[in-house]
Amino acid sequence: MINIPALNKEGVELVDKHILAPLPGGIKDKVRLRLRYTKPFPPPDSFGEVQLILTNKTDSRIQGYLTIQPPADWTIMPGERLMVAVRPRGTVAAEFYLSIPMLPGSDPQILTIRLTEKAGLTALAYFDLRDGLLFLL
What we know:
This protein is mainly beta. The protein contains no helices and 9 strands.
């Protein structure tokens, strides 16, 4: 089967931006987390843009570090740790890039997000990225 991209009238490829909610569990009482990415992910050795949309659900500023742990054998750029600050009731987007391995497994492809402030762990969320793969083995 050949995958032919949809093009607009200017010949620019149309992409399907996908919004993904975290799996049940984790710690999400102070923030709302969503991932936005192009579906499907680009082929191996290519990087796809991913945005973590983070909404502060409190009346206090949140400031700390995001630790982003990609699924096994995936590559992340620019790195696994990003600094973030979100005003009360505000929303920010943290951008990073992921590359899939040559042969991603059919098991869950879990991306883990931790938000840590001086006081400790503020948020913990898990996202299964299998739905963004073009095919499953």
